[in-house]
Amino acid sequence: MSKRLGRQTVALSDPPRLRGWAAVGGKKEGEGPLKDCFDKISEDAYFGEQSWEKAETRMLRDCFSLACDKAKLPPSKLDYIFSGDLLNQCISSAFAMRDTAVPYFGTYGACSTMAEALSLGAMLIDGGFAANVCAVTGSHFCSAERQYRFPLEYGGVRAPTAQWTVTGAGAVILSRRREGPRLTHVTTGMITDAGITDANNMGAAMAPAAFSTLTAHFADTERDFDDYDAVFTGDLGAVGHDILQSLLEKDGIDTGVKYMDCGMLIYDRKTQGVNSGGSGCGCCASVLAAHILPAMEKGIWNRVLFAATGALMSPTSAQQGESIPSICHAVVIENEV
Amino acid sequence: MSKRLGRQTVALSDPPRLRGWAAVGGKKEGEGPLKDCFDKISEDAYFGEQSWEKAETRMLRDCFSLACDKAKLPPSKLDYIFSGDLLNQCISSAFAMRDTAVPYFGTYGACSTMAEALSLGAMLIDGGFAANVCAVTGSHFCSAERQYRFPLEYGGVRAPTAQWTVTGAGAVILSRRREGPRLTHVTTGMITDAGITDANNMGAAMAPAAFSTLTAHFADTERDFDDYDAVFTGDLGAVGHDILQSLLEKDGIDTGVKYMDCGMLIYDRKTQGVNSGGSGCGCCASVLAAHILPAMEKGIWNRVLFAATGALMSPTSAQQGESIPSICHAVVIENEV
Question: What interface predicted TM-score (ipTM) does this complex get?
Fold first, then answer.
């Protein structure tokens, strides 16, 4: 009966399908390399609302509605929503979903939330508990800055290793059906702590978690980079991307050009002033829905490993001198070819 | 293949067993009605640590270890941990579990987290994805007060409807085996918002969520209060308990003495100065592990409905004038008789 492959991976026996997805972005994301890929771009930081937190809530809600529309599935047909975000007590998710009338599971995986939500949703469908599940998450630069760092008006100088929280959301609807890309494997992360204490260097803190989950995935599935058309990490940025690549090379693994980081794809680092790249729950969630899944639909990639990374710290833990525990959850998405 | 009963409930086909559990409490909890039921009581608020956040982390970690010991299961045999807490970015859970080397799913259901974690863990076992799962959560009066309300030194007067955040943790280990109480049904809450904006009256905000989930559970399962030996809500306190009872009575449902609230059981409201009662993730989690499950072991109750309630707000949402969205997740636990 067990569907487990090794310590961290399960293989789904009747893989659910990705039935529909949507990505919503902010103004800066609408000026980056993926500008034409979003389903909706806001012209400003407010999304028509009066606070950044309400803007984030509106963005999540819009993204959820767009995904339902594109999947041709009304919310009343959803069995569960899995959602979470970076705001204290995950308020943007809860407020965005409060009028949906769908059974709701709040998840917290920091920037790994999309992969965590997809993992749990896919297992509930494969296990016979649900027919349709939505995974939705997002982040907002302004609400994150004031919560985690400084008031925006202060205009603090950013470290070269710092990342830029993506204003964006992604939503994916998984269904028990016979069409669309399949979610075949779930590799669940263990919490990893490499002792990094610099909250301006999340890439370095999270790269060991990505390394841990990728090597577990390859060991559990007896696969390697060659078995995938593309491998994505969530939001390591350029700094974390290079650290992960070095860690893998030390193990004799050549990632080649197949390995990409969503935090490097969403912005033009040369012209957009984002230092190491994008971060936030909305980073890999929106890149998945705006870029990866549409490319899979076109047959550019047929088998993808999506490994979202998250830093499980808070301003309080940083102030108390703690290092940064991190996690990485991975899922395999493949076309039936 | 579907295991769904109605919109919000699933019936598990091969119900997992509650294999072991533990409860840890603070000093005040060790002076209340359940004082002899905890596995461990701290003599002060610090649990041997230097900050309240680290104390909360230590408490969760101790509770987890005790549950593993009592279940005679080393952490290396656990397939997943589900954990979450009230602190911003759920740091006490993440820091408590960072050295366990167990695949980790962060959950956020505010004070409903124990039922959410049990729900997801039970479904993953029943679906064949795991053999052993731990659900663990807790809360700490001092860390919650300074995050949500006032510095403790300020000594703010508490409203009569206010509740006292429990310093306590509960951990339950679910396993695929043939002994122990079974977790047979999962009823997942929808987010409910009755428009309450008073953050000092969480009982009133959460009672409608409990009403929604209980009535959904009874409709989905074609059961009623008579089918249970006892029904517990999580932390409505005396105020919310009475509101829920009134809502049910309006629907012609007489709860009788079977209906109890964990927030009323953990303290002596006459002598312990807790106003409406206990609250926090650790409230129903520790009452479950310290009181409900031991009573089931003794055969005092054989079929219990455990309905944990959570308020999905934050200080920021309250400051922005938002009302309080709430949720209630319920699970059925029964002895094989």
Answer: 0.98
